[in-house]
Amino acid sequence: MNIGSLILEPEKLSALMAAVAAFSAVIVVSWPYLFRNSLAERMRKVEDERERIRKRERERLNAEKRPVSLRSEPKKLFKAIVDRFDLAKQAEDGEIVGMLRMAGYRGHAAVIAFLAVRLIAPVAIFLVSFLYIFLVLKPPVPVLVVLCIAAGMGAFGYLAPAIYVRNRITKRQKAVRRAWPEALDLLLITVESGMSIESAFRKVAEEIGAQSAEVAEEMALTTAELSYLQDRRQAYENLGRRTGVEGVRAVVTSLIQAEKYGTPLGQALRVMAQENRDMRMSEAEKKAAALPPKLTVPMILFFLPVLFAVIVTPAAIQIAGIQ
Q: Would I find Transmembrane among this entry's keywords (predicted)?
């Protein structure tokens, strides 16, 4: 049988095409059983592994949690020092309280500890500096000079607690600024899924904890304030004051306006999430643009001398060999 006979005999051609069609149908039906696709199995294993890791991390975070109370009692020594030197008025200073809250230290005990340490540190550093210079270093200078140096160190001790708190504020704001766009995305998803704003804040606080403990803490505090404060606007404003981040304050303003005028909350959160992402990208671009000037001095000090040595040394060796 050749191709010409098949073309000339339509009955045989029809039979051959039917056989090919039947064979193809059998192959198509039996293909999943003959060659199993393991993609679904691999995806299921990946999902199981992801869920296992998420469960393990949540158990670890829950095990590391320590009971936190805003009404924790200050240490007796610190309280005695504050009472002895009549620093109660400074303990009520709103600027100090706000600064400590922005650093993550809350409650009356943190204020008492800050005031006591600021009072103890100058005296302790003065005594340690004086004894170290006078007894260990033994410089050939008058005692009055040693006292002046120790007094300067004591003055630094008075400023050290405030410097430490400001450093904590900077680190905390950086952490909040880095994780805030993701928190807004989660908040947008929960709000558009039908949750109330309190439930949305609570859910975001639970989910964002593995990425940023600072944002989770602020979200949890806002949830609590939304529950017991009569004015919900006050809870939003407290969130902006505690963080001190411009992006958080803008979101707080949008939430207050949506609460006041009844505008759609999802649309406002979507816009604010995009703006916060743009702000984070612009900050990254600023850091990248500032990198070349910062590298100029290290290149001059460390790179160019080595380059000159590599270029000049062979010529110097040849000249020395000729001579």
A: yes
